């Protein structure tokens, strides 16, 4: 079984930058995710939303990236949300303890 091709689909609304993370997020695709995050990480005029609806797998490196984004956005006092977390990924976030730091939200709420 071939793994689903990793991709990040960017969407911009009037008040949000939404990154749809699709496929498997592991060490091999971190440069791709960083490249997608780079242009919007420091832009504080809009909320940054990671939509994980189509995320199939995440490893510790991927979790580390989310924690980095969380810390930076917090320092900038800029809104950051994670939306549509699949149950298996949510369980992993719970086990690693990062769930309590993430603000879950949908595009409509932010």
Description:
By secondary structure, the protein is an alpha/beta fold. The protein has a single domain (7-101), classed as 2-Layer Sandwich (Transcription Regulator spoIIAA). The chain is built from three helices and five strands; from the N terminus they run ββαββαβα. The chain has helices at 30-37, 60-75, 87-96, and strands at residues 7-12, 16-25, 47-51, 55-58, 80-83. Strands 1, 2, 3, 4 and 5 form a five-stranded mixed beta sheet that branches. α1 links the parallel β2 (16-25) and β3. It is globular.
State the gist of this model:
The chain has a single domain (7-101), classed as Transcription Regulator spoIIAA. The chain contains 3 helices and 5 strands.
Labels describing this entry:
Transcription Regulator spoIIAA; 3 helices; alpha/beta; globular; 110 residues; 26% strand; 5 strands
Q: On the 0-100 scale, what is the average pLDDT?
A: 92
Strand residue content? 25-35%
Query: What is the N-to-C order of secondary-structure elements (H for helix, E for strand)?
Result: EEHEEHEH
Q: Name the overall outline.
A: globular
- Under CATH, the topology can be stated as Transcription Regulator spoIIAA
The helicity comes to: 25-40%
The main sheet comes to: 5 strands, mixed
Low-confidence stretches: none
CA radius of gyration is: 13 Å
Give me the count of strands. Answer: 5
CATH class: Alpha Beta
Q: Could you name the CATH homologous superfamily?
A: STAS domain
